Structure formats: structure tokens, C-alpha cells
Amino acid sequence: MENIFKNNIIRLKEVDSTNLEAFRHASTCAVVADCQTAGKGRMGRTFVSENNQGLWLSILETDILSSELTAWAGVVICKILRKHGLEAQIKWPNDIQVNGKKICGILCEMKNQAVVIGIGINLYQEDFKDLNSIATSAKLCNIFIDKEILLSEVLDGLNQMLLDYPSKKEVYLQYFKEKCNTLNQEIAIQIEGDVKKGIAKDIDNNFRLIIELSDGSIVTKDSGQCLTLGNP
Ligand code: BTN
To answer: Which helix (H) or strand (E) holds 147?
Structure first.
């Protein structure tokens, strides 16, 4: 099967951010770098991406302009990591965790009729220093994953995802719900500047999180900060 990304892989030793670099290109491509000097996370945060410690990858595509692709990509990555033996789970909306620690972050951005999906997967780190309580790598989970093999699998998965969109939505949604570790957790969310507590109840048909607040009211969040507090 033709893979639209494998036909145009841009490999770099160092870049500011593979997401930024992907937007510098006009047509479908994949950008992979050994190291990012300004890796971007959600909410303006930085994403630590040290030299050859993980897969730092972005794809640019112009066919499907949907913010739902973050969730769809989460399903793709979760499945691949599980195939490698990791007990991967999806932390709504865009993290993949193992044992409650982040192993992968996904940042989907849209600009000028193009979507960039950036994926950072921690592979070989042994020490995250002050992030040790919240971050992990395949190595720390005693799993070795070859970066080149993973790149090939991820590009195949993303290529298939675009072919599946939107007809296989039910399949992706079902998997997302099954593997989402945010459900039934007590969480804190930002609503109009206030932080409120509630229980994550469900994922709706647009991959939004349905939360029951402590006063019994129901709110739906399509992204934004969502802090997990612990099991209710
Ligand atoms: C997050 O955790 O908030 C999202 C992190 C996304 C990180 C990846 S690494 C490859 C791509 N390039 C970036 O600058 N960010 C994404």
C-alpha cells in the first residue's frame, strides 16, 4: 500500500521543533529529528526531547482538517505501543501513559489549511530528573523498541488512520474509550478561569470528555487542561 508519508521523510539531526519544521513545508511530509531544541507541548509548554532518546516526529497533511485527529492519533500510538508489550493507556485528550506516567505526547496543530500532528515517544531515557514522578520511557518499562522500526510502524498507522477517517470512527472511539484511563477518575478542570472538581464520566461521539461536577451539573470539554487528582 502506498504510504504518503514514507514517500517524503525529512530527517534532521537537530531542529527547533519538528512541528514548526513541518509547517515550513508545503505538502504532505514527515519530519523526524534526533533532537529538538524547542520541542512544543500543549498549552505553550516545552516538551523535553533530548538527542536520540526517543522518536520526535511530525507529519503534515492537507486532506483532513479536523481537531479530532489528536484522539485518532492517540489510538494509533496506543495500539502500536501495546503491540510492543507496553501497558499503554490514553490520558484524555492527548497523552499516552504507562503505569500512570507519560510515555508519549501528541500535539496536533492547524494552520493555513494544513494539519501537523506531532508525536513524541520516550524510548531510551533512564532518568527524567524532576519529572521522574510523571514521565517514563520504554526503557524504564524494560522494553526495547528500535526507533527505525517504530517510525515505520507509526507512519503506517497514521497513513491508515487517514484512510479510515471518518468511516471507521466507531472503531477508533470504542478503542479510545476502552483504553482511556481518565474515565471514572476525579479530575480538576479549568472553567472560565476557575478550577473545578468533577468525575470524568464518558467520552462523547466527538471524543470530548463528559464531566460531572461536584454540584451535579454536567460539562463537556473538547480539550484544555485537565488535571487528574486520583481515584474517586
Ligand atoms: C504534549 O505533551 O503536550 C504534547 C507533546 C508533543 C511533543 C511532540 S515531539 C514531536 C513534535 N514536535 C514538537 O515540537 N512537539 C511534538
So the answer is: helix 147-164
Q: Tell me the C-alpha distance between 24 and 199, whole Å.
A: 41
Ligand 1: which residues within 6 Å by Cβ? 17-19, 36, 39-42, 45, 47, 49, 56-58, 95, 105-107, 118-120
Atom number, ligand 1, closest to the C-alpha of residue 45: 3
Q: How many CB atoms lie within 10 A of CB 129?
A: 8
Note the pLDDT of residue 181. Answer: 97
Contact at 8 Å (CB) between 56 and 18?
Answer: yes
Closest CA to ligand 1's atom 7: 120
Strand order in the sheet with 9-15: 9-15, 29-36, 54-61, 114-122, 101-111, 95-98, 88-91
Q: Quick one: pLDDT at residue 232?
A: 32
pLDDT of residue 225: 58
Q: For the full predicted model, state whether its pTM sits above 0.90.
A: yes
Number of Cα atoms under 13 Å in the Cβ half of residue 131: 15
How far, in Å, from the CA of 105 to the mean position of ligand 1?
6
Query: What beta strand segments (E) does 46-126 contain?
Result: 54-61, 88-91, 95-98, 101-111, 114-122
CA-16 nearest atom, ligand 1: 14
**Mapping DSSP to helix (H, G, I), strand (E, B) and coil, where does residue 34 land?**
strand
The packing angle between helices 147-164 and 169-179, to 10°, is: 130
Q: How far is the centre of ligand 1, averaged over its atoms, from the C-alpha of 160 (Å)?
A: 21
> Which residue ranges in the chain fall short of pLDDT 50?
231-232
